[in-house]
Amino acid sequence: MGDVAVGARSGHDGEDRGRPAEATGPGADGAVTSGRDSGRADGDTAAGEQARTDGQGPGDSAPKANKARSFWKELPILIGIALVLALLIKTFLVQAFSIPSDSMQNTLQQGDRVLVDKLTPWFGSEPERGEVVVFHDPDNWLAGEPTPDPNVLQTFLSWIGLMPSAEEKDLIKRVVGVGGDTVECKGTGPLKINGKALNESSFIYPGDTPCTNDSDGGQFKVKVPKGYLWVMGDHRQNSRDSRYNQADANKGMVPVDKVVGRAVVVAWPVNRWDTLPVPDTFDQNLSAHAAAVAPSGLALVGAVPLVLWRRKWARKGSE
Length: 319
Fold this sequence. Notes:
- The protein is of the alpha+beta class.
- The protein is built from seven helices and twelve strands.
- The protein has helices spanning 2-11, 13-16, 28-34, 42-53, 71-92, 152-159, 288-318; strands at 94-98, 113-117, 132-136, 170-177, 182-185, 192-193, 196-197, 220-223, 228-232, 254-255, 259-268, 274-275.
- A hairpin with a 2-residue loop joins strand 6 and strand 7.
- The termini are far apart.
- 22% of the residues are buried.
- The model is unreliable at 1-56 and 290-304 (pLDDT under 50).
């Protein structure tokens, strides 16, 4: 009966169009709905109807999700970015340095790693009294010192700033005098800047004296030129610093443009994490300019009454 119904409707398509179909057998619904393909399965028909009702035309397909890039393909890019950032940080922000000797004990121990601020000099900042600074060898101060031979990996990692610098021509000392200062040391101390004594007991090596009583440079009085620094180690009896390099081209001074930056933090080992602040004794007014201006100011104040007294007697005389 179902086959007969389909054949009847096919033969009178023009007359029966628009009239409701009557179910005449178990497969009548599927045959009438498909219109032309009576052999299509019910599941295929439902899928075709769904495709037409979701707003897509024939032949349209659903959008495919973008496939995530493989981690291994992105890894070289991430490593490249990390290396560039490390190099920029090392060049413009901070750099790690290793302490090679005992000349800064007990502030710094041999083998400590310090972080050096390289940013502030880009804004015109210059070293100040009391700061611990890293600087390039001014004039062969390290002659005769053993030079380590780092391997290729250590050299590369130090170049990008991920390890302390392998450059063995750098030194680290404390700034004592800046341009215009007069620094002097007699006997065993105290050390004086522009005639004012420093109390260095909080940072020089226990048992050391501020000055060294010898004729090789331990006794001195120098005036620091503009653009230069006078530097000394905190282990006074074990530091070849400005005192013992006065025969070089700079007379023991360190040119400011040789300074890499200020050491601000002890970063390694972990049990020695600490900052490197300026000791309180350098907070007093040590300026050479202030010391020179003060007597002039007092002289001016004292001269005022004398001038007034002379003018008063001059008027009386004219009367």
